[in-house]
Each structure stands twice: as C-alpha cells, then as structure tokens.
Amino acid sequence: MRLCILGGGGFRVPLVYRALCRGRYAGLVDDLVLHDVDPVRLAGIAAVLADLPGAHDAAAPAAPRVSTTTDLTAALTGADVVFAALRPGGTHGRVLDERIAMAHGLLGQETVGAGGLSYALRSVPVMRQIALTLAEVNPGAWLIDFTNPAGIVTEALAPLLGERVIGICDSPIGLVRRAAAATGMRLPVGSPPLGSLAGVDYVGLNHLGWLRGLREPDGTDRLPALLADPEALFSFEEGRMFGPELLGVLGALPNEYLFYYYFAREAVTALAGSRRTRGETIEAAQRDLYPALATAPDPATRWEAARRAREEGYLAEARTDGEERDEADLAGGGYEQVALAAMAAVLTGEPVELIVNVRNDAAGTSAVAGLPPDAVVEVPCRVDGRGAVPLRTGVEPTTHQLGLLAAVKAVEREVVAAVTGHDRDAAVRAFALHPLIDSAHVARRVLADYEAAFGALPRLWS
C-alpha cells in the first residue's frame, strides 16, 4: 500500500511515520511518498525519519520505504491514500494572517475569524487544483484532509471527490477522551484506535462544536454530573479554559476553539499583548531548524525538542499565567492517529468510529437538522471501505448552537463561492458576516489588506 503525504516537509510527518513503524498500523503501508514544494523542508524531515529511535531496528521490520519528490503528479500517481497537510503561503503567511487582523483590532488567529478566512482563500484554490489532478491521474485514491481550515477545504473538495474525501481534526476526539476520563467512564473511546462513539453526542463544524452527552451503555448520561463538579472540570484543559460557571450555563462542553467566541474580548486582548504572535514564534523556531535537520548528527532529537516546545505554546492565550498543558496533550498522538485510523478503515473495510468532517447528507438524510444537506459538518461517523457516514441523523442543535453554526456555515460557503465563482463580493460577504468581525467597514479594509499582502488573492477575482 502506498501513502502519499502532501506537505511532506511538515512538522507532524515524523509522528505519522513513527506510528507506521510500530503498533497497530505497522505493516499497513509499504511505500511512503513525501511531497513538498520546499526541498529544504523535505530534506530535513527525511533526515528525521532516518534517525527516529527504533524505527529501523529489528523490532520494527515493517518500516515503510520513504521517497521524496517535488513533483505533484508523480506523488499522486499510484497512491492508495493521500494525506493533505498543506500551508499555502508558508509560516510567514500565517504571520500575515495574524498581524493584519490584529492591526484592525480583530482576533489574530490561524483558523478562526479574519485570519482563518484569509488562510481559506489561499488553501481552497490550491486544494481544489490538487483534487482535480488526483481525479485525473488516480481517481480511486482516498484523500484525507487536514489542510486548514479543514471544514471549509473539505466542503470545497466534496463536489470534486465525493465520498472519497474526509476531513479530520483531533480536537473533538481529544475533548471526548478528556471528558470521559474526568467522569471515570470506561468508555471504549479511550482505547486504540478510538472505539465506539455510540454514547457520544457531539455536534458542530470544524473548530466549532459541542460535546452534549456522554452516555453509558445503559443510557445514563454522565455529562450533567461532570458539568456540576468543579474539581472534575479543573482536571482537564477545556474544563479549566471555560470554567464551571459558563459550562453550567451552556449545559455542554465546547470545543477548545469556541474560546475565541465565548471570550472574544479576552482573546483579542491577550493576543494583542503578546510580544510575538503564535505564527511569529513558530516562524522563528523553524527558520534555522529545517536547514539544520538535514546536516545535524541528531535530527530526531532536535525535531522532538522543537515539537514539544511547539505543543507547549498551543492555545496559550486561553490558559492562565503559568498554567501548563497536560502531559498527555504534549505527547502527540492526535492528528496522526485520527488520520491513520481513517486510512486503515477505508483500505481494509474494518469499521472505526471517528468524529470527522463529512457532508451533512452522507447518511441519506441530514445529520444536523437546520443546516443545508450538502454542507460539511463535524459529527461522529462510521468510517469503512465506503467512506464516512454519520452515526446519527436529525440531530437538533439548541437554538444558540444552530444560530452560531448557521452563521459560520454561511461564511464558509461564501468563501467557497468566492473561489469557485471568482467572486470578490462573496469574499466581502464572508468577512462582513463573520461573527468575530464586528464592522462591515473593517471587513472591507481587512480584506483589502490581505489582497495587498497576498498577490494570489486579487488574481482570484480577475
């Protein structure tokens, strides 16, 4: 079996490779093809893979063969599964996304708000071209997307690839696992790869969802007791992030990215007060790291130290001063485990239950009531050789949840329309309608500044 990773010079690639060498997924992949437009990043990550402890010893005889290429068609040809983890514009593009939003008094974040829309306007055209190439040279391949913003990108690709594209994110299943552990539940969601989600009521879009129920096999819902127990809530990140008071009012556990909606003012203030944005911190760390990886005597050690430092800074603005991330969250095992679980399911036909991004009507009727049937939603799904199908249909969000979901989904669809229809008015609507952009005048100005910073954006409308 051949796996192709687009964005093969990406920081998380060694986590995927390590998981393919040992444990549940060992032997599943024979050939691993890494594609990237940056040969320096490719060389650095290839050096890390060659140096990973234990990856090539007698205990790991199933390590896949690794090759690298900057030729997209060559990378896609013959692949059974394609992982897409791209960042059009690179890390510096992320810095611009953040800084331009902040200059207008808006949230400076990678995937949420104005910065997320700018990122999407760069990601969607690139990913649609990749999908068209894949459909031409290798129509039987599966595309598992974690190019951000994953929900928007998956929605843009679904008309081109149908059920053969699945969008993933590790935030929802991470929330489920942490909440289940805090209740003392012995749910199979804590066992590899993810187990059963039959008792999990999670509804949302990518980076915008709520855990609304954790039911035992006998039907007992353990979530209300958790929400009423401050000590248990303070034992995991989302409980500390949102606090017992707000969680008690909401009656649900929000995805961590809802911090930017429920605490928008605090988030803007915290980010504006930081000496560096998250993107600037990562850009500075990687500027010298990648060239050094290819020639250093210990590339795997250097990569691991950099990876851990990067994880420690994740969503730092949502934590109180001095608060450290839980050790389990620093260890990795998020995206790559979800991606590999989905890959194994579509290849072998052995079903797995995952929270993924999929068309609302993939089960034949809408999974989330009140949203368009062809909209991409993030819900618990059964994934097997046919693709991903929601476990439940007709799920009714609360009025508050539906209002926010509908508002953000309208924005997402305007972004896709802007790209596919070469329609700048649709882009203006996306910025003006976003709940975290509080002025239509500011929306126009921030879009104009993104167009000035990214020359590819004005060309979208020409």
UniProtKB/TrEMBL annotation:
Co-factor binding comment: Binds 1 NAD(+) per subunit.
InterPro entries: Glyco_hydro_4, Glyco_hydro_4_C, Lactate_DH/Glyco_Ohase_4_C, NAD(P)-bd_dom_sf
Pfam families assigned: Glyco_hydro_4, Glyco_hydro_4C
Keywords from the named record: Glycosidase, Hydrolase, Manganese, Metal-binding, NAD
Required cofactor(s): NAD(+)
Chain ranges of the Glycosyl hydrolase family 4 C-terminal domain: 202-437
Family the entry assigns: Belongs to the glycosyl hydrolase 4 family.
UniProt xrefs under PANTHER family: 6-PHOSPHO-BETA-GLUCOSIDASE, 6-PHOSPHO-BETA-GLUCOSIDASE-RELATED
Stated name of the protein: 6-phospho-beta-glucosidase
Organism encoding this protein: Tersicoccus solisilvae
